[in-house]
Specification:
The chain contains no helices and 21 strands. The chain is mainly β. It is globular.
Length: 238
């Protein structure tokens, strides 16, 4: 929704012969509905037991500290805004944020999905299951269904993948999830969205490990069998 400018480029007999039209302004008025908005405490980015430590490299701040999330429905799309304490782009990520991955698990109450969170040594809270999973970091965004998922498998890749934008003034990462990605439900009432944060080692293409003591690019305060969850938030759409 919003104001858009459109122009046409018209070619002649060869591509060197071309002219542009005047600009045309189009206003798209698409209904926007706020489905849920939830705050999360600051400085609780310490893992499930409150003992995790960030890697010691200077580029790590508090990028994994979720401060809140909101869910909107705009047309057939689901728009998820996630506010974090520190939004950084030290490594020049194409998606506009780094040193945090968002694991977004979407539960359709009319479907039976999976309970295990892939590669995170953790499960869905409150006895819930997930049907769709979105993995988002600064360089890639991928969507999966629960089919074929497990402790060592993300599941089955699905499309279209969500679009992303950042609002640096508000430290917010915003995902626009097409209705087709989540089965194009008629009504989102009863859906649950569980979000966790961690970080990804892009060189090794794995989640960053955790050790008893933090290292430059590894978490501290735990071991490799502990949950790979720095902070989390559960959103229930009534």
């Amino acid at each position: 929704p919003g104001i858009h400018s459109i122009l046409f480029k018209i070619y002649g007999e060869t591509r060197r012969e071309s002219i542009y039209s005047d600009d045309y302004t189009v206003i798209l008025d698409i209904p926007e509905l706020l489905l849920a908005s939830l705050a999360d405490p600051e400085d609780d980015d310490r893992g499930p037991q409150g003992r995790y430590e960030y890697p010691t490299d200077i580029t790590f701040k508090n990028q994994m500290d979720l401060l809140g999330a909101n869910v909107k429905q705009i047309g057939a799309s689901l728009v998820l805004g996630m506010k974090i304490k520190d939004l950084t782009d030290s490594w020049g990520p194409q998606n506009g944020f780094d040193h945090v991955t968002f694991q977004i698990f979407i539960d359709d109450p009319d479907k039976k999905g999976a309970t295990v969170l892939p590669f995170q040594n953790a499960s869905m809270p409150d006895g819930l299951d997930w049907d769709y999973f979105i993995f988002a970091n600064g360089w890639s965004i991928v969507a999966y269904s629960a089919e074929g998922s497990g402790p060592g498998s993300f599941g089955t890749a699905i499309s279209p993948t969500p679009l992303v934008q950042t609002n640096k003034m508000n430290n917010e990462v915003i995902l626009r999830i097409a209705g087709d990605t989540i089965g194009r439900p008629d009504d989102l009432k009863g859906f649950n969205i569980y979000i966790t944060t961690w970080d990804f080692d892009g060189i090794e293409a794995v989640y960053r490990d955790i050790y008893p003591e933090p290292k430059s690019y590894h978490f501290g305060g735990g071991n490799k069998e502990d949950p790979y969850v720095m902070d989390d938030i559960l959103i229930k759409i009534d």
